Amino acid sequence: MQVEWIEIRPSAAGDSKYAAGYNYDSEDEGFGPMPAMQQEMINSMSQAAGSYGGHLLAGEGDAMAEYVKSGMRIPRRGEVGITADQIEGLETLGYVMSGSRHRRMNAVRIRKENQVYSAEEKRALAMYNFEEKANRESMLVGDLREMLEKRQKAIALSVGDGTTLDDRFNSIGLQKKNI
């Protein structure tokens, strides 16, 4: 993740409009919170750097997560740069990889891997829940629109002339426009 540095230059002494650093020209954008774009929300749901739990070195969790996301086996010490097939081939030949010799080091590696896996599972579950909620909301909005359309048609039929409220308001507006 790259952070872009934006330099804010001080305004001229006589320009009191921008003296506080506030841009008054951007006020026409609207008030209140803007609806979030779904793709931006999905991208922001990924793990924050260093949020894979404690006892991991700086960047270690992020590096392990990249292997998990790409579906690859997390390499042990001395295995970086070697594919999983090459490692299995060397182990079948009788070579003992440096990470599998020491019980304690192996336990630490497994714990770190499990931290990363559980964090990624939580992220995936949150993503799934977000998508399900969005689907439920869109179905609910569709059902409500359908119900409103049926109600408007029922009201129009009960009035007797068969025109909906939208038709009446449009026709009155057109009549006033033509006068």
Written account of the structure:
The chain has five helices and no strands. It has 179 residues and is mostly helical. α2 crosses α4. InterPro entries: NKAP, NKAP_C.
Low-confidence stretches: none
The chain-level mean pLDDT equals 72
Tally of individual helices: 5
Structural Rg? 30 Å
The level of helicity is: 40-55%
InterPro entries: NKAP (IPR040466), NKAP_C (IPR009269)
Organism: Polarella glacialis (Dinoflagellate)
Domain NF-kappa-B-activating protein C-terminal: 51-149
GO molecular function: chromatin binding
Ordered list of secondary-structure elements with their pairings:
Elements: H1 38-44, H2 60-69, H3 84-92, H4 103-159, H5 165-178
Helix pairs in contact: 2-4
Protein name: NF-kappa-B-activating protein C-terminal domain-containing protein
InterPro entries: NKAP (IPR040466), NKAP_C (IPR009269)
GO molecular function: chromatin binding
Jot down its keywords.
single chain; about 180 residues; mainly alpha; 5 helices; about 0% strand; elongated; NKAP; NKAP_C; NF-kappa-B-activating protein C-terminal domain-containing protein; chromatin binding
Summarize it:
This protein is mostly helical and about 180 residues long. It contains five helices and no strands.
